Model the fold of this input.
Amino acid sequence: MTYNNKPKPDDRSDNVEKLQSMIHDTIENIEAAEESLAFTNSETQRQQIAAKNERRRESIESFRSEIKDEV
Done:
């Protein structure tokens, strides 16, 4: 059996599209989490959701910065 140990070529031609898709998905996750707040009575869960959404917003900013670098 022959193994091909060559690395795949680094194809970044669609990075911007992938990043934009990731931004879109992350925004949808933020919106869904905010909607779930209406059904959450626990303050702990509310704080966890808020913290997670803050991390998501930071990720969106990182994605946007990466898009600028790619362009």
Notes: Residues 15-70 form one domain. The chain has one domain: 15-70. The chain is about 70% helix and 0% strand. Helices lie at 15-36, 43-70.
